[in-house]
Design goal:
Elements (H helix, E strand, L loop, with lengths): L1 H12 L2 H24 L5 H20 L11 H12 L11 H5 L4 H26 L1 H8 L3 H37 L8 H30 L2 H21 L8 H9 L3 E7 L2 E7 L1 H25 L4
Antiparallel strand pairs: 1-2
Length: 309
C-alpha cells in the first residue's frame, strides 16, 4: 500500500494542473495575510498630521457656515467654541490586528474556504485526468486489486491536502502573531494556541473535502460532472433548506463554522422571539461525515464492480 501511495504521489507531482492548484493554495492565503497586515497597520505621523489638518478645515467651515453644521447661535465666540467642541471628539482610528478578531468573523474562515475549494479541486483534477486519458485501465494492469488502488490514490490525495493545509494554516497564524509582537500589540493568553488549533481543524476539513472530491470523481468518472454537482449543491443547497424552513443548524456554512471554531451558535425561533442555541463540533462532523462516508462507500463499490474502459 505504501509503495502504491508513493507512486500516486509521484504521479501527482507531474500533474501541472494539480501543482498549479497547490501553488494557489499557498499564494492566496499569503495575499490574504498581507492584506490584513496592511489594512490594520498603525497610522503614520503624516496621516495623523493630515487628519488634524482636515479637522481644522472642518472647524473653519463650521465657523463660516454655522447653520449648515447645526449651530444656531449668532455669537462668533460661541460659534467657534461650539464648532471646536463638536469636533474635538473626532479621532483617527484603524482597527488593530487581533488573533481573536481574525478567528471570529475575520480572515480565518476565508483562509479555510480558499484551502477547501482549491484542495477539493486538486483531488478532483488528479483522478479526473486518469479517467479522461484512459490511463485507469493501464494502471489496473499493474495493480489488479481495485480497492488497493482506490485506497492508494485516496491516501495520496488526503495526505498531501492535509499536509499542505496544515503548513499553510500554521504559517498564517504564526505570521499574524509575529506581526502583533512586532507592533507591540497585546495577545490574550491562549490566543495563539486557539488560532493554531483553529487552523488545524480547518486543515482537517480541507483534507476531508479533497477526499470527498476524489471519491465523487471516482464515482462519476468525470471532473466536469463532479464540479457541476458540487457547484449545484453549494448554490442550491442552502437556498432549498431556507425555502423549506429547515433550521439554521442544518445550513452548510453553520456546520463548517462548528467544526473549524470548535462549536458555534445559531438562532432558533421560539414563539415570537429568537433564542440563541449552541451548535457543537460533533454536529458539524456528523453533518459532513455522513455525506463523506456515503460518497466514499458508493465510490469504492462502483470502482470495484463497474467495468473500466
Amino acid at each position: 500500500m505504501i509503495a502504491l501511495a508513493r507512486v500516486e504521489l509521484t504521479r501527482m507531482r507531474w500533474r501541472r494542473a494539480v501543482i498549479a492548484l497547490l501553488v494557489l493554495a499557498i499564494v492566496i492565503p499569503v495575499l490574504i495575510g498581507v492584506a490584513r497586515v496592511w489594512s490594520t497597520r498603525p497610522l503614520s505621523e503624516a496621516q495623523l498630521t493630515e487628519f488634524h489638518s482636515q479637522v481644522e478645515d472642518q472647524i473653519a467651515d463650521c465657523v463660516e457656515h454655522p447653520r449648515q453644521w447645526g449651530v444656531r447661535t449668532k455669537d462668533p465666540e460661541r460659534i467657534r467654541a461650539r464648532c471646536t467642541r463638536n469636533m474635538s471628539g473626532w479621532q483617527p482610528y484603524r482597527q488593530p490586528l487581533s488573533l481573536a478578531s481574525e478567528r471570529n468573523g475575520g480572515s480565518g474562515m476565508g483562509v479555510v474556504a480558499v484551502l477547501t475549494a482549491l484542495l477539493l479541486l486538486a483531488g478532483t483534477t488528479f483522478v479526473g485526468h486518469d479517467w479522461n486519458s484512459g490511463s485507469m485501465s493501464n494502471q489496473l494492469l499493474f495493480e489488479s486489486r481495485r480497492r488497493r488502488l482506490w485506497a492508494a490514490k485516496a491516501l495520496a490525495v488526503t495526505g498531501v491536502a492535509f499536509a499542505l493545509a496544515a503548513v499553510v494554516s500554521t504559517a498564517y497564524w504564526l505570521g499574524l502573531w509575529a506581526v502583533m509582537q512586532a507592533r507591540d500589540l497585546p495577545v490574550l493568553d491562549g490566543s495563539l494556541a486557539d488560532s493554531l488549533l483553529y487552523g488545524l481543524r480547518g486543515a482537517g476539513f480541507a483534507a476531508a473535502a479533497a477526499l470527498g472530491g476524489y471519491a465523487l470523481t471516482m464515482l462519476g468518472r468525470s471532473t466536469v460532472a463532479t464540479v457541476g454537482v458540487l457547484f449545484g449543491v453549494s448554490v442550491a443547497g442552502g437556498i432549498v433548506l431556507a425555502v423549506l424552513g429547515i433550521g439554521e443548524q442544518w445550513q452548510p456554512q453553520k456546520n463548517v463554522a462548528a467544526i473549524v471554531k470548535d462549536g458555534t451558535t445559531y438562532y432558533e425561533q421560539a414563539g415570537n422571539d429568537y433564542a440563541e442555541r449552541d451548535l457543537p463540533i460533533w454536529h458539524g462532523i456528523g453533518y459532513y461525515g455522513v455525506a463523506l462516508v456515503a460518497t466514499v462507500g458508493a465510490s469504492v463499490v462502483s470502482f470495484r464492480l463497474r467495468d473500466v474502459p
